[in-house]
Amino acid sequence: MAAAAVGLSPPAVPRVSRHRPGAPRAGRRMNAQPAHPAYVPALDGWRGMAIGLLLVGHFMPLPGINLGRVGVSLFFVLSGMLMARLLFIDKVAIGHFYRRRISRIIPAHLAFIILTSLAWLALGLPITLSEILPPLFFFNNYVLSSAVQFGHIWSLSVEEHSYIALSLVAIAVRAWRRAPLVILLALAAACAAMIIWYQRVYPPGPELYAHMLHTETAAYGIVLSAFFCVLFHRRGVPRTNGVMVPLLLGGGVVLHWWSVPPAIAQVVGVAAFALAVNLLPRAAAPLQALFSLRPLRQLGLWSFSLYLWQQPFYAACLKKALPLPLALAGAAALGIASYYLIEGPARRYLNARWSPARAA
């Protein structure tokens, strides 16, 4: 895709490791299991798979399929599940939820925008304020520009908008003492309807592509995954055989083939990913072991910083300013450096400053 990127930095799995599955409910199916174990290392591996596919899609694209968009979708559904755990299952305080999101995203994001802008100016490359402000304030999924180095922030914009929307749903259902299932399903259906509507209105091309980046369409995977998360928490995860998650993943990837209409890819394909990530915590042991491989999990831990810093090198590679090996090496080096020098330290500092113990 023209200015594609990985979708987000989902909340790190260890932050939800305190989750205790609820007691079995009356009427729960006998073939179901409790929805979520305390900590699932395989989810870090899922994140690593997503960023790996994104990097392949950008730097070594395969003919016929946009693996960059596949990576985005995989991030979105993981994020939706993790947000649902925090807001609707663990029921963390809304202020705490926002503080954690801010500490996770904003420092690394600001550093990336500032340093990239300075680098462009230092190199004598054209850059304008109108190209900086939309990604800086998370609305460049509605205001597109030719600044490829910031093009990937569209997916992070969708994430931020979804944080706000789901937190408002959480506030409402807590006040009304109602389960969020109906609201989440209605939101997912509304997103799917918008996807189908836009495909009917706009012919294939830049305008349709631009509308598929809007939050009202792109948030479909986030909201649907949140719905599955809450549903399985209340009713248990159905027992599945060892091939269900791979089949869903494979089917979702196939539905992202170039010739598949966007509405089918974005509705059916992303739904397969959303179901797969919510089944992964109870997947067969060999699949859990595969996703829990240390290199894949480590790649997942670096994923947000890699997501940020791969884009300028992707832009340079597109313009033939850097050879592929050098561009990929530069993206990896700056991404990993950002994780250890900016993202991690800033998150730990802010979380410590905002911790209840310190406030007391």
TrEMBL record:
Q: Name one Pfam family in it.
A: Acyl_transf_3
Keyword terms, alphabetized? Acyltransferase, Membrane, Transferase, Transmembrane, Transmembrane helix
Chain spans, region Disordered: 1-32
Which residue ranges does the record assign to the Acyltransferase domain? 41-335
Ranges of biased composition (kind: Basic residues): 16-28
GO cellular component, as recorded: membrane
Looking at the UniProt entry, the stretches that span the membrane are: 72-89, 110-133, 153-173, 180-198, 218-234, 264-287, 322-342
Q: Which residues form a coiled coil?
A: none
One BP annotation, GO: polysaccharide biosynthetic process
Gene Ontology MF annotations: acyltransferase activity, transferring groups other than amino-acyl groups
Q: What is this protein called?
A: Acyltransferase
Q: Which organism is it from?
A: Massilia violaceinigra
